[in-house]
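Re: beginner question about structure tokens

> Can someone show what the tokenized structure looks like for a real chain? I only ever see the sequence side.

Sure, here's an example I had lying around. Input first:
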Amino acid sequence: MNFPVFDLHCDTLSAIIDENLKLNSLYKNTGHIDLERAKLFPGYAQCFACFATTCDCQNPIEQFERQLAAFQKSLDNNANFIRQAYCCDDIERNLMEGICSAILTIEGPAGFGYDPALLEDLYKIGVRITTLGWNEQNPLTGSHITGGGLTELGCEYVKEAQRLGILVDVSHISDEGFWDIMDITDAPIIASHSNSRSIWNVSRNITDDMFLEICKTGGVAGINLYAEFLGKDPDLDTVCDHIFHFINLDNTGEHIALGGDLDGCDTLPRGFDGVQSYPLLADKLLSRGLDEKSIYNIFWNNAVGVMRKCCT
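And the corresponding structure tokens:
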């Protein structure tokens, strides 16, 4: 079954600038995502993360700038197939015209020095989603590895992002930081690429209470396809287990999306090899009893809806 795909997180920009991977082109490459495969869907919207943290590289600002340049070059070189989207109207217009949508996001604010005052400039170039960090303790918050809650600067960052219309993303954050954000949020919160901790108990996944709190804000959790966050020797059924667990908690299916973490995964579940495998996941969900409307919501509508609420 071939549904449109809206994926809330990938690390393809990091892969493109990685000289060892030699992906080079967004149109056709040996990574998890390219346009030659993605343009076969009836619609495709991909959130491209600029990833730069102090624990990942010596010069995160330079790395951040290189990824921004790679994003623009990829759009320029493939203008017949993909356009940057700044709002839901852009995404829906691109869908009608058979053009893929590219949404710019941030994973690791070290790339611009954690400064909330710079968020307005980032918003102007199209950033619409931001985490508060990665796996490190930073000036904004602790991570799922380090622990530690939101700082005063982190609170300021959340409020400024939401004022501008940038979605706040709690993937990678500490449990304490998560609940600190929930205490101050004025807008939907997303976990762009986080699974169920009840199904697979790792700190990168979210608890049932966290998921339900995200639902209360009107946000979504994006299903992550990194095998490490799915289970032991996972396959497509394991991915479905996480989806059905969230559905059973929420009873609506309106707060689940896709957040594949593609090109950021060392290993994927058996039966999933890259973006071209999303129809196989849809088929598996169908075979396990999920109706087409619910799959369409998970694959497309739920992510579009949360962006419409927040990203003006």
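Each token stands for a local structural state, so reading them left to right follows the chain. The mean pLDDT is 96.
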